[in-house]
Amino acid sequence: MSRIRTRFGARWLRKFRVPSLRVLFLLSMIVGGFAVTGLYLGSQINSPVQLHRFRSYSELTWYVQSHHPPQGYWWGLEDVITFSAGDTPRGLQGTAGYSTTNVQVEGVDEPDIVKTDGTYIYTIAEEKIAVVKAYPADTAQIVSWIDPEGTPLVLFLWDTSRLAVISQVITQEPEWNPFEVILEVYDVSQPTSITLLQRISLDDYYVSARLIDNYLYLLASEGIPQENILLPSIEIGSFTHTIPAQAIYYDPQSYDYGFCYYHIIALDISNPETPPAIETFLGGTGTCTIYSSLVNLYLAVSRFTFRSNAISGPSTAIHRFAIHEGQVSYEASGAVPGLLINQFALDEYADHLRVATTRQIETSPPTLFERTWTQVSNVYVLDQTLTIVGLLEGLAPGESIYSVRFQATVCFLVTFWQTDPLFVIDLSNPTTPKLQGELIIPGYSDYLHPLGGNQLLGIGKDVQASETENWWYYQGLKLSLFNTTDPYTPEESAKMILGVRGTESPALDDHHAVLYHSDLQLLVIPVLLAEYPDNNTHPPYEFGEIVWQGAYIFYLDPESATIELHHRITHIEDPTVLQDEYYQWGSHFITRSLYINDVLYTISPAILSFHDLNDYSHLGQIQLSEP
């Protein structure tokens, strides 16, 4: 069977060699039947955006049962979640001699499957949490296990005393919402004697979470039926809290085929017995986005409106909530045209929110039998009232956004169709965003990582054009160093391509899989390597054979524009097992890496292995699951 590249969420359609936003927009507009005119539609939103609270349960019921478009209308949506705090994005920076989770911005921790405090490593191993005394490496051992309720998904570690575990339970019923999210907070100040401090349960589906100082913000969605609508409830310890209709926010102008309750729960995990703050929003299915600064919490949703027998959208509505010591209050709403690609499409800086979107627009007036569409990329700047105060629209007609990175007053934007334009956008004046430079190269970057100064790392794919059709095919994994010292003429100063078509990496979709140490100029990412078994020329659509999986270790020197491969680490002793298709998502696949002082740790679901950072000699390993 030929191997195809599959991605969860926004990228799964790539296995058909078509960018997902392109398909979603085309389907939503061709089938939905709504129209826009001209190449630049502008930033005006036809329907005002303002959140209200329901006045009664009967009003909530009416809204859910009536806010559906007529039969025959359909659209596709992509949902993302993101948080932000502070002004300066950062990569993974070690503190006290150990690495932390690679996050988008300073001050906001993100959920991951492994956490460390510099002595102990907490990692998800199948259905449990392994607590490993990891440093020093010569005495490393598992000291205890945590068996949470449900399947553990992600972890947070605060200080050295609190571990938060978020788990998912599939309940099978009711059919409209067969999920339960469980948040458990443990006292791990004595890792050999761990105690459960708090348990919160929601009949929800986990979306994401963030930790700001000692406050954990959890976002979960709860499906609701169109008939016999129940009010949401949350179990906090032994107490069940029912949320009244009058406490639920909604957008009166929003339409969808189905609705969910979205819960934002703020819990002080330093004192988890303190009752959490809860805010609930009623929105369409699978459309919720969270973005948080130190003082504001933004709730964004993909939005369609329906007026005069016409669908308007898609746009992204954004709602700002002020946060202070765990209290949340609604402040303002606004909207931007188009949809987001992922969490990096949002950023807050100097009291402004910057948003990058891709939207589908009509390129010529429609005729009776034909409409012509294209898609463009846009950057919007909003003030604290969420009014658009600056915009740059119409970038890269016919292409989709593949990656975005905001860095202080600059936006780096990568779009792609057959080539990879890297746009450098000046945001120093929020009211007049300006395109400064553009670099066009083969391939694209899925993830952009600031390296300091004017240097940028791109992780993505090489591509090759078809000789017989106007198309392109994904090839090997591509690392690029970008130099933006002159923003008007950005350069790809170095590149490296790993493997052939079929080579993959979790780093393409999950930035938590990226370990970067700026002082050591060290980059570690997991790679599933595909190669051709012979030296013959192969057509661009042919996949290579999977031959290796593990962690690739690079040295990056942006100043001398070099990328050097220094070592590879694998947990798979016999690479021939990779020929078994069912093994290729096996428990020995390395998915994360971290360092504590001079030791590099690589983690798979089955093994925690440690190597000397100086010469990469193997120091030992710990079995986390059955061989």
From the structure above, extract its key features.
mainly beta, 4% helix, 7-stranded mixed sheet, 6-stranded antiparallel sheet, 627 residues
> Largest beta sheet: what is the strand line-up?
1-15-17-16-12-11-2
Share of helix among residues?
A: under 10%
| Multimerization state | single chain
Gap between N and C termini, in Å? 27 Å
In words, what does this structure look like?
The chain has 627 residues and is mainly β. It has 2 helices and 41 strands. The chain has a 7-stranded mixed sheet, with no helix packed on it. A hairpin with a 3-residue loop joins strand 18 and strand 19. The longest helix is centred in the N-terminal third of the chain and has 13 residues, at 20-32. The chain is globular and about 65 Å long. Mean pLDDT is 84; it is low at 1-43 and 74-96.
Provide a concise account of the structure shown:
The protein is mainly β and 627 residues long.
Topology readout:
Elements: H1 20-32, E1 52-53, H2 57-66, E2 108-109, E3 114-116, E4 120-125, E5 128-133, E6 141-146, E7 151-158, E8 162-170, E9 179-187, E10 195-202, E11 205-212, E12 215-223, E13 233-236, E14 239-242, E15 248-250, E16 259-268, E17 277-284, E18 288-292, E19 296-307, E20 310-324, E21 327-337, E22 346-349, E23 352-362, E24 373-382, E25 388-395, E26 400-407, E27 410-416, E28 420-426, E29 434-441, E30 444-452, E31 455-465, E32 472-483, E33 491-498, E34 515-517, E35 522-531, E36 545-557, E37 562-569, E38 592-596, E39 599-603, E40 607-612, E41 618-623
